[in-house]
Amino acid sequence: MIRFDVVVIGAGPAGLSAAYKLASSGIKVAVVEKGEYPGSKNVMGGVLYLSPLKKLISETIVDEMLQANVVERNVIEQNMWFLSDDGVIKAGHRNEKWKTSPNAFTVLRAKFDNWFAKKVEKTGALIISKTKVEDFIWENDEIIGVKTSRPKGEIYCKAVVIAEGVNPILTLKAGLRKRDITPKMAAIAVKEIIPMSTERINDIFGVGNENEGATIEIIGSWSKGMMGIGFLYSNKDSISLGAGVLIEDLKQNNKFTPYELLQNLKEHPAISELLGENKNSANEYMAHLIPEGGYYSMPRLYDNRILVVGDAGMMVNSIHREGSNHAITSGMLAGETLVDAFEKGDFSRKFLKKYYLKLRDSFIIKDLKKYKDLTSIMEKNHQFFEIYPSLLNDAAYRFLNVDGTPKWEMQKEIFEMFRKRRGLIGMTIDALKMWKGVR
Ligand code: FAD
Q1: Would the CA dihedral through 153, 159, 163, 169 be positive or negative?
Q2: Which of 124, 125, 242, 348 lies at a CB distance of 3.0 to 4.6 Å from 29, suitable for a disulfide?
Q3: Number of alpha carbons in the 13 Å side-chain half-sphere of residue 360
Q4: In this structure, which residue's CA is closest to atom 12 in ligand 1?
Q5: 319 pLDDT above the threshold of 90
Q6: Using N-to-C axis directions, what is the helix angle for 363-370 and 349-361, rounded to 10°?
Q7: For residue 123, which phi and psi values (nearest 5 degrees)?
Q8: pLDDT tens digits, one per residue of 222-243
Q9: What would the pLDDT profile of 193-211 be if each residue is shown by its tens digit?
Q10: Contact by Cβ (8 Å): 104, 328
Q11: Rg (CA), the chain
């Protein structure tokens, strides 16, 4: 009989962080991963925030990652672009402090997850790849192990950490989620990795060398009024270009596939010129779900002998494009809770509630609560993705296009433009809705 103290299901950042914490405290952990190797199936934009990794491992992790060459570029500038059919408004922030004290790196998950998994193995955890957890082993209504896809693949354990990502198959089987996630709770994102010379990437993003990079988030005309965010991130010698749209919107609209929306984004003059001759030379194409349902769509995160971490717990803050940091932090907090559980010999629901309380006191639940209404507000108010980006562009064009019109007349025209296309009451209500979503 194979026996471990803890089985972790899934070797993404959430599962690996839980395993790191547990194994480095002397607990016998097996991480079961269905992919060929950790990261082989995983998709992210990918901006990896560093503070959770520093807390989990140590401050030296940043240098270690740089030396191991597992990260792409240090993000020294973050931008938001608002597209109309023929224009773009660019807003952004660059900071010198990020050069010496990095906040985030761009990463490619196949490389990063695999490196992280090796680091976890060094602490004593066993990573079992190419193996799927198919079900749980139950005794007296309690989970006492997992059944895997391997012949005689039962593994018995005292506790299980579900880190299966957005598709909640085992969370449902454990009874922690009553119903599957709905199209309102997830976005479908497609992403291309486009090879490009380092010099051209430096030029496009306006950075001095191959270690510095920037991110661009893009909303507006490309999503055809649907709730969607595109992204363009700089890697060392490639760029990551992607587009994600709420599945409910795609279902309602029924006219575009995610791939066509990504094409729309690529065909926009501002993006097309930036990609130049590399536009159609992607060497990797991938699709993945993003849990965007937020606070209201979270499952129960703990029960007797079981905890749920990361995307499986719907812990993504899509407005801030934060997911990996939630995954790492929740994995770490789950690990800490189980270390205490082993000390006390108590794996009851009552004891494991400590995990939920730790999450509640952390930024994770605080932020998810703060934005709890945002997805449903955005989903019902497509003007934020269609009318406003277009209006802002038209207003900027009118104001900056010198044709002999006196400025006060221009201002009047712009005011009229807003009044006609959205109305004063409409704009006031929109401002209140936005405030309700982000306050
Ligand atoms: P995952 O990374 O999905 O890992 C789950 C793992 O479990 C996988 O390895 C999977 O193979 C394995 N697994 C699943 N079921 C089983 C099973 N039954 N048996 C064995 N193994 C199993 N976040 C950011 O912070 N910054 C970004 O820029 C960003 N951009 C994103 C862009 C896109 C297109 C997407 C899709 C997501 C993005 N996110 C981003 C979110 C981020 O990727 C996730 O929040 C994060 O990866 C969650 O980690 P996780 O470990 O919970 O899940």
Answers
A1: positive
A2: 125
A3: 7
A4: 10
A5: no
A6: 70
A7: -80, -5
A8: 999 999 999 999 999 999 999 9
A9: 999 999 999 999 999 999 9
A10: no
A11: 23
Q: What is the pLDDT of residues 241-294, one digit of tens each?
A: 999 999 999 999 888 999 999 999 999 999 999 999 999 999 889 999 999 999
Give the distance (Å) from ligand 1 centre to CA of residue 80.
Answer: 24
Residue 177 Cα distances to 6, 182, 219, 312, 327, angstroms: 21, 12, 32, 10, 18
Q: Given the cut 0.90, state whether the ipTM is greater than it.
A: yes
Say how many C-beta atoms besides its own lie within 10 A of residue 319's C-beta. 18
Q: Ligand 1 pocket, 230 CB below 6 A?
A: no
Tokens coding 386: 């269609």
Residue 47 Cβ < 6 Å to ligand 1: yes
Say what the pLDDT of residue 169 is. 98
The C-alpha atoms of residue 341 and residue 355 are separated, in whole angstroms, by 10
CA 367, CA 119: separation in Å to the nearest integer? 29
45 lines ligand 1 (CB under 6 A): yes
Q: Which protein residue has the closest C-alpha to ligand 1 atom 38? A: 44
Q: Which residue carries 């920037």 as its tokens?
A: 214
Calculate helix-pair angle for 324-344, 13-23, nearest 10 degrees.
30
Q: Are 338 and 6 in contact (CB under 8 A)?
A: yes
Q: Going by DSSP bridges, is the β-strand pair 74-83/88-94 parallel, antiparallel, or unpaired?
A: antiparallel
Buried b (16+ CB within 10 A) or exposed e, 362-387: ebbbebbebbbbbbebbbebbbbbbb
Angle (CA) 71-77-79 rounded to 5° is 115
Q: How far is the CA of 89 from the centre of ligand 1 (A)?
A: 31
CB 235 within 8 A of CB 72: yes
* Cβ neighbour number for residue 428 with a 10 Å cutoff: 11
